Amino acid sequence: MAEEEANSNGNATLKKILLVINCIMLCFGTSGGPLVTRLYFIHGGKRVWLSSWLETAAWPVIIVPLGISYINRRRRWANSTCERASGLIDNSTPPRPLLLKPFLFVAAAVVGVLTGLDNFIYAYGVARLPVSTSALIIATQLAFTAAFAFLLVKQRFTPFSINAIFLLTLGAAVLALHTASDKPKGESDNAYAMGFVMTLVAAGLYGFILPSVELSYKKAKQVITYSLVLEYQLVMCIFATAFCTVGMLINKDFQAISREAREYGLGEFSYYVVLVANAIAWQCFFLGTVGVIFCASSLSSGIIIAVMVPVTEVLGVMFYKEKFHVEKGVSVALSLWGFISYFYGEIKHPINRDDTGRDHQLPAPIIHAENERPQPQNDSSGSPDRV
Asked: Please, are residues 69 and 77 in contact by the beta-carbon 8 Å criterion?
């Protein structure tokens, strides 16, 4: 009993550390991604498919932590040889390089295609809107996330989370009061309106994607570990990149890259730096997103994305000299209030209070060693209580 309690406390601590790391990556990607994407378009970039392709093109970096994880699993398996020989452990099967089973692989592939489509729609909007305007529209994804999380994964709401959703949505509405004055010079009314609509559609689609990822975790007939989450992210990014690659080939974007680099306003070298920074920032966003969903919930991920809107607003004003109206200051205050409300509720009334899974969250011992099998006392079906 004491050993099980110690393992549970250790898993809970590891889960909190992973949550903090993924929150940092998500915050960086949420603000850095739109800013770098807008930088590409401001100084002469015109390729929407290229911009959307960059959002998941950095997927090979995920192979590094996956490789390290596999090496560690092999080492632990090798070190247990003596225990297996003495009969203490009945597990002579070496760990597999890949943990994904067919169900999660197909789910990740479908989510990847949807993500590729969402990336294109979002890039189309960002190409025509200021960062401040696109950021406030994207904040509406929180409402979409909350609705789809309730429908797909039966997300449990608390007064604190409802208050946070209301405040963050109100902050976005306040920002919308001066969107018309932010129209870029030379932008036609039709192009601006199309960018506005496309960005709103992107927010809605991503609000559906977040709970879909959580639903696939919940329905998986295997223990969900962080290595498995990384594999899910890898497959998702590969399929999203493949989707955008088809668009680039049809639009002949690959042939246009060298010409666009020579004509770029900041210079040819800076052009490629912007492309690389774009890919890195968005990879942090997607890694942080799936990590927060794994450690907390899709609604938590949506809250963090929404709360970074005022930060993106301020950075847009600082770097791109966008106007900062009084309404934007009010929105910052409302968003910070919503952020504090949500996390106060999480601290005061944690959702995963017991091991029954009744509140839709994972019980505390969620994170298993990758070569460790679930204990017999867990769900007899072999599926986790929640992810």
From this structure: no
Local structure of 88: helix, strand or coil: coil
Closest CA to 215 of 378, 25, 379, 360: 360
pLDDT in tens, 207-229: 899 899 889 988 888 888 888 88
Residue 282 to residue 286: CA distance in whole angstroms: 6
CA pair distance 94, 117, nearest whole angstrom: 38
Among residues 99, 100, 108, 349, which one has the least CA distance to residue 215? 108
User: How many other C-beta atoms lie within 10 A of the C-beta of residue 163?
Assistant: 16
Instruction: Name the pTM for this structure.
Output: 0.77
d(CA 219, CA 108): 13
Distance separating alpha carbons of residues 322 and 135, to the nearest angstrom: 13
What are the sequence ranges of the domains in the chain? 14-80+95-348
Q: Which one, of 359, 6, 377, 10, lies nearest residue 154 by Cα?
A: 359
Q: Which residues neighbour 85 within 8 Å (Cβ) at sequence distance 6 or greater?
A: none
